[in-house]
Amino acid sequence: MFNPLHAAARLAGILLMLVGIVGPATADNPVTIFSPFNVADAMDKGVEKIADIPYADGARKKLDMYRPEKPGGLSPVVMFIYGGSWRAGDKFEYEFAGRAFAAAGFLTIVADYRLWPEVKYPGFLDDCAEAMKWIEDNVESYGGDPNRFFVVGHSAGAYNAVMLGLDGSFRRDFNVTMPIRAIAGISGPYNFYPFEYDQVRDTFGSAPNPEGTQPINLVTADAPPIFLASGTTDPIVRIENSHALAAKLLANGTWVTERYYEGFGHLEPVVALGSMMRFRMPVLQDMVDFFQTFGAFPSGVPRPFFTPEPPQTEMTALMEQMDRVLQPINTTGR
Prior knowledge:
Elements: H1 4-22, E1 47-54, E2 62-68, E3 75-81, H2 95-103, E4 107-111, H3 123-138, E5 144-154, H4 156-166, H5 169-173, E6 182-186, H6 198-204, E7 226-231, H7 240-251, E8 256-261, H8 268-271, H9 283-293, H10 314-326
Parallel strand pairs: 3-4, 3-5, 5-6, 6-7, 7-8
Antiparallel strand pairs: 1-2, 2-4
């Protein structure tokens, strides 16, 4: 029987181990479950970071930019949207992801957005669309090509990314006219109505048209190409979410590519974007190849580095402990 108190204690113990690995926390960068992957030696090199650029007024309306140090011309642009159940998450936690895409040749944007309880649906989507507008208006001056624009999201961020592609009203509200070449959703929820859990009801329950909050209900022939990836043993967002959305996209004539990583759960695919854990699965390589299909690199794609079988390390052992803490959540129905 799953005991949440025991799981919480185990997770707390893991976080204490993180402190020993990454050093002391600071007010701006507290230790989180992602901290070990943001250590300098654990991240991709050859990347410049520009932090805390405001895209609108508000404490949660800033973005971090990662760009290749030697781009050789305008770079394609990726907007990475992190997850956290629409109530947690911060851009600083995903430096490893921003640097990964930048090292692969993309100018990468990681933007904060408002969270519950400050906002409910659709406030967080409005914020992401507003960040998109900033990208459209400003990214070329930083070396990015707004005509080669791609969106990536993980978990709740994958929901945000796919919704912004399927429901054009959010982009129209902020006068975003640049096209989305393609979208990649990792471990995303796309079909979760009726709202079964309090966490989801808090965020979506007051929507006047709850069915309209679901990506699976918004698919049309105008949808951009979509890449869907998930771990096969994800206990947080069931893999059926991706299966169902892919089937609906195919039925409407939309290009969809599916990748399912055998034996992996919810956090592993996003962590595997980073240099430290990239050996676990080729998710970054798969996404870059997909984006290349839709014009990311007209002169040829730089290949992300992927090695499938490195030696066991302290960090891989730590990831296995994290998996054991998170996996049993499914036994409670979440």
